Amino acid sequence: MIDHDEPAPAVAVVGGGAVGVTAAADLAARGADVTLYDRGDLGAESSGRAAGVLYDAYADDVDAAIAARSMERFRAFDRTLPGFSFTPCPYIIAVREGDADADAVPAMVDRMRAHGRAVTLVDPASLADRFPIASDDLAVAAVAANAGFCDPASYVAATADRARREGVEVATGTSVALSREGDRPAVRAQPPSGSGDAPSGGDRRFDAIVVAVGAHTASVLAAVGIDAPVIPYRAQALVTPVSYDGPMVYDATAGVYLRPHPTGLLAGDGTEPVAADPDAYDRTADDWFVDSTSVTLRERLADPPVEDGLPVDRAWAGLCTATPDGDPLVGPVADLDGVFVAAGWQGHGFMRAPAIGEHVAEGVLASLSADCRPDDPWIDAFHPGRFDGDETFEIRDGMTVERRDEG
């Protein structure tokens, strides 16, 4: 906890996506003096291109606990955060006949239930009686009750407003680089000419700096000699005007998820498991993704929209970030006192943002406390120090039946 007899710790949060704005707001709410930097507009990168699918259906204990806390906060924010709304909606995990992953689902559901998640294994034939989806080709299905969706951009905007109310200084349109001044880290800001929403340039010293820049993590930390094994990769989504009032569905065999959308239906994945340049990637969706998603929707919806093709209002690509073991990097950066990182979400960053932002805020303030060992507040499985930073690895899709092998 902050000693109110001492000056408030000065904390910079670099990155204005969902995790960054949440961490900034939660830090300020706990008494820190916070400045939030973003080189563009808040939520303009990966968070603004996220699908807004939210659930707590995880088999791993750490993942399940984080997701449960995020869902708790999303529901609370629906009541308390002006400009944000959460829509409850069941989430179905579906695996087709002939898919070897079908055998893993019952044990996966058992582990989810062991962690208190409201997930039920169901007879696929019963799904068509309950929901407007086709299920005659499914081998197994599970329904997660504690799920829903939201508009990611509205979450970022509403949380940024909350951060401002808590006293956070928001510096948009401001590129920054990390530097070191004596025994404290510093931020070197480069505001655009004529910007009215940024502090003056030059070095600014902080007690702590949180790096929450998503796909730019490796380059930001490399500037101060830190190797971070975080690789950006493209994922894609589209919105079709097809009317849909059913559950969220993850067709694991096809690798496609879908959910209701205010203008029809949102569907996505389209993972491209190769490294992408965060400054020069293709932000438009690929034709192959639109075509293959059209096929999946015709197969999965009880009332297919069209025989061939799919009307598309909008299709886009965004960036996800991968790590060697599929877990994020959250916590203090080795050999750089006062710098903390939060990155590497495998496509699950937005749905974890309320819990991770809170965890970062509590961890940073605890780490600044004189009577706390640096590692005490942090989740061991996510600790950045578990890697050397120069690992080579293959990018794995984060939307899988089992995100990683578990005992």
Topology:
Elements: E1 10-14, H1 18-29, E2 33-37, E3 53-55, H2 61-80, E4 87-88, E5 91-96, H3 105-114, E6 119-122, H4 124-130, E7 138-144, E8 147-149, H5 152-165, E9 169-171, E10 175-181, E11 184-190, E12 202-205, E13 208-211, H6 217-222, E14 231-240, E15 248-251, E16 256-261, E17 264-275, H7 287-300, E18 314-322, E19 329-332, E20 339-343, H8 349-368
Helix pairs in contact: 1-5, 1-8, 2-8
Q: Give the ordered list of helices and strands.
A: EHEEHEEHEHEEHEEEEEHEEEEHEEEH
Tell the overall outline: globular
Note poorly predicted spans.
193-198, 403-407
Structural class: alpha+beta
Distance between the termini: 37 Å
Estimated helix fraction? 25-40%
- What share of residues are in beta strands? 25-35%
Do you know the CATH topology of the domain at 10-49 and 153-230 and 325-386? Answer: FAD/NAD(P)-binding domain
Largest sheet: 8 strands, mixed
Largest sheet strand order: 6-7-5-15-16-17-14-18
Number of strand elements = 20
Mean pLDDT figure: 91
Helix tally equals 8
| Gyration radius, in Å | 21 Å
Which second-level CATH architecture of the domain at 10-49 and 153-230 and 325-386 applies? 3-Layer(bba) Sandwich
CATH class descriptor name of the domain at 10-49 and 153-230 and 325-386: Alpha Beta
- Give the name of the CATH superfamily of the domain at 10-49 and 153-230 and 325-386: FAD/NAD(P)-binding domain
